[in-house]
Amino acid sequence: MEETLTHLLNGFDVALTPYNLMFAFAGAIMGLIVGAMPGIGSLAGIALLLPLTFKLDPTAAIIMLAAIYYANMYGGSFSGILLNIPGDSPAVMTALDGHRMTRNGRAGKALFTAILASSIGGTIGIIIITIMGPLLAALGLRFGPAEMTAIILMAFTSIGWLLGENPTKGGLATCLGLMLAVVGVDMARGMSRFAFGFPELLSGISFVPLVIGMFGFSQVMILMTDERRKKRDAAQAKDTDAPQADAVPMAQQKIRLRDSLLTRQEFFRVVPVATKSGLLGTIIGVLPGAGATMAAFLCYIFEKRTGGNGAAMGEGVIEGVAAPEAGNNAAAAGAFAPLLSLGIPGGGTTAVLLGGLMMWGLTPGPLLFTEQPEFSWGLIASMYVGNIMCLIVAVSIIPFLTKILQIPVRIIAPIITVVCVVGAFSVNNSAFDIGVMLASGVVGYFLVQYKYPTAPLLLAFVLAPILERSMRAAFEISGGQISIFYKSPIALSFLLVIVAICLVPMMIKAVRALGQRG
C-alpha cells in the first residue's frame, strides 16, 4: 500500500504539470460536448480525435483521450435529462427519471444529481483501480462465456417485471428487443436473419438511430399532441396520483445554479446510491465486453430492487438518476484495469485506446507499471484531476443548459427533429438509418401511449448480441454440454439468483394468500 501511494504521488507530479493539465482540461471539455451530442459517443469521439494526438507526447495524449472517455459519461446525461434524447447508450437509463424530473420542474436538480453521482462513481472507480487494478483484472479474466451468459440471463429475468409496472408488458417489451437484436447476419453460419431483402439490415439495426427514435423523435410526437390528449393525460395522472407530465411547463422554467443544489436530505439520499452503484459499476467495467452501458442498466435494476426508494424509480426521483450515472462513470474507470494491467480492452472505446498506446510504442501489460511508471501512474493521477475538472465545468454550465427549456414548443420541436435526423445519419452516413429512427420513433410513441416500458426493450437489444456470442462460445468449449454452466461456481451463483428471482415473488404471493384465508 505504501509503495502504491508513493507511485501515485509521483504520478501527480506528472499529471499536475501545466502541459498535461492543459490537455486534461481540453479532453474534459471535448468529452462533455461529444457526450451531449446524440449519435457520436465516446467510441466515435476518440476515434475521430486520435489522429490529433500523433505528434503529442504519449503521456499528454493518453491523458487527453482518457479525459474525453470519462467526460463523455458526464455529457451523455445532459440531452437525456433535458430533451429525452440520450447522448449515448449508458444515458438511456438516466433519461427514465431525469427527463421525468425535467417535466416536473426539477431539471436543475436532475442535472446536479447526475453530475454529483458521476463524480462520486468515477472517483470510486479510480480509487479501486489504483489500489486493486491488477487483482480486478485477474477477476475479470475469470468471467468466461459461461459466466457472461449467466449474468446476462439474470438481467433478462429481472428487467421484464422490474422496469415495467405491468410484468406482462415488461416481458413483451423485452421480447421485442430480442427480436430486433437478431436482425442481420448470423455470424456463426453466415446466414441472413429477418433482413427482408434490405441490404442495409444485413449488418443489423444500429443502436443509435433506434434509441434516438425511441426517446427523441417519439418525444417530438408527444409534444405535438393536441390539447384534448393533454387534458386526458392530466386527468389520468390525477386519478392515479402519478406526477403530471406537464405539471410545470418547460418553457416557463427559469433555473439558477442555487436552485439546482441539493438539500441536505437529498444529498444524503444520493451519496449511498452513488457509492453502491460506483462499487458495482467498477466490477462490471472490468468484465470483458460488459462496458458502461451494461453497468448503467444493472446498477439501475439493482437500486430499484434493493433501494429504499426503489418503488418510486421511473416516476422522477433522484435515485433513478444517481444509480446509472454513478455506475457508468465507475465502469469507464474500471475498464482501465484490464487495459493497463493485462492489455485487454473491455470494449470498443478501450480498444481504440489500446491501439493508441501501441502506436506510441507502449505495450500494456504487467510490465507497463514497472517499465513505464511515469506514464502509467501519470495517467491514473490525471484521472483524479480530470474528474474534478469535469465536476467543476459541468456544474458551472447548468444555468446555460437549462435555458434550453425556455424555448417554446413550436421552436424546440423542429430543433429536436433536426438533432434526431443528424444524429441518426451521422452514425453510418446512411439515409436508411433516418428511416430506422423515424420508424422506431413511431413505435416508441405507441409504446408510451399504451404504457409499455421502453427500457426493457433497449436493454434486451444491447445485451442480446453479447448473450448470443457468449452462449455459442460456452457450448463450443463444452462440446454442447450444458454442464459448463453449473460446474462454474460464478455461473452457478447467477443461475441460483435467477431461480430466486422467479420463485420468491410467487412464494410471497402464496404466503400472503394463505394469511388472508387464515
From TrEMBL:
This is Tricarboxylate transporter. The keyword Metal-binding does not apply. The chain crosses the membrane at residues 20-50, 62-83, 110-139, 146-164, 170-189, 201-222, 279-302, 339-363, 375-400, 407-425, 455-475, 490-508. It comes from Roseospira marina. It comes from the Bacteria. It holds the Pfam family TctA. The keyword Nuclease does not apply. Residues 21-459 form the DUF112 domain. Keywords: Membrane, Transmembrane, Transmembrane helix.
